[in-house]
Write a structure and sequence with these properties.
Number of helices: 18
InterPro entries: Leu-rich_rpt, LRR_dom_sf, PP1-Reg/Actin-Interact_Protein
Keywords: Leucine-rich repeat, Repeat
Radius of gyration: 27 Å
Protein name: Protein phosphatase 1 regulatory subunit 37
Shape: globular
Structural class: alpha/beta
Distance between the termini: 39 Å
CATH class: Alpha Beta
Biased composition (Basic residues): 19-28
Number of domains: 1
CATH superfamily: Ribonuclease Inhibitor
Largest sheet: 13 strands, mixed
Region (Disordered): 1-33
Helix content: 40-55%
CATH architecture: Alpha-Beta Horseshoe
Strand order of the largest sheet: 3-4-5-6-7-8-9-10-11-12-13-14-15
Length: 445
Amino acid sequence: MTRCSDSGEDSTENPDRNQKKRKKRGKHVSFPPDEQIVSGFAEDAGGTDDSCITLMDVIGAYQQSCSKHQVQPRETILQQLQQGVCGGGSVECLDLKGERLDHRSCEALEVVLKSLHFDFINLQAAQLEENGASSLLDMILYYESTTYLDISDNGSMGTSSWRALAHLIKQSVRLSRLDACNVRLVDYPVQSLSKALLTSRLRALHLNNAQLSGSSLFTLVRALKTNRALLELHLSSNQLNGYQDAMQLGDLLIYNNTLQTLELSDNVLADTGLEELCDGLSRQTKGLKVLILKNNQITERGMNHLAKTLPGLKILEVLDLGDNHLGNEGIQVIREPLMVNSSLLHLGLSQTNITCEGAVALAEFLAESRLIRRLDLHQNRVKLGGLMALSLALRINCSLSHLGVDPIPPQELDEFLTETQKRLQAEITQRCNANASRLQRERER
């Protein structure tokens, strides 16, 4: 398993290029010359005809680098390299979750980062020290070491670490996803992150449980309004409220037509927040395809705002309202707007206090819809009457390929009703599978 450079040379950097790298930024980060870090490594690699290095070469070089920096080689790193599958110089994952990475341990990793590209580098809860974190992030940028980086649960990162991360986000041409969850994104961290996002190439950003409510969200949204690269934004568990926070999110949808996924689960947006989001959605002619609003204290009153917006939506394909208190009343409010909507493919309504009455209303929607592919009704009390209505609707509907509904508890059924339930659920499954097969055949034509 090898990595070769495009020029046919081995991946060991020459001293001039390394010196240029150290002068590139005004940071005092120590990157020792390559011939010192990998003593004897260049000579061994250069002696081969194919000018390539193997994973065993990288392991040996890492062990020598650890010796130079007077740290013990991490057994988890050695095991991952030994078990790694390398193709074209890429390895699936460098998992350092929970490892305590001090400055010297980070410096010792340079030979690994410059020799291999990783699909995912996991630094979650790595207890990164200030100097070590900034050095490590500088290395990841310089060698373009990964496409997906997770720095979640690193609460001790200071100013220089966030500055290095911002530079990585701004400059990297390879990094496409960043997770920075369970950290405190206020003041300098959110300011530096937001400034970097103005010109970032990131495609996905996960900032769950990052205390982003209030001024922090304002700072982030102000940058994202003009961002034309980000496709996914995940902001669950940030205590986002239905007033100032929701207004900021509504503005984001008005000014940003690039974002395709917005995940806002486990916040407190409530009905007023949904109104602001609907206002933003109604102004989009392209953009958001996935909106996740699970567990946001939304009630049947919020469905009035959604009912006004649904008929005009042309882009939104996935809407998840699970774990909200919609009830049968809320479903009745959106039943006809759902029939008119011409974009929705997946509707999530798990744990929304729906009973047979709500299921019958949804069955009427299914009978009219030619688009809906998935409907999730798990953790609702849908009994035989609701199942029968859904089953009858599927005799007409030709698009639904998945209907999630829980079995009725056995203690609520006698032997005859148990058999009836089994028959109805089998019929629902059979018709959904038939629709899925037909849709697959149409895609393959």
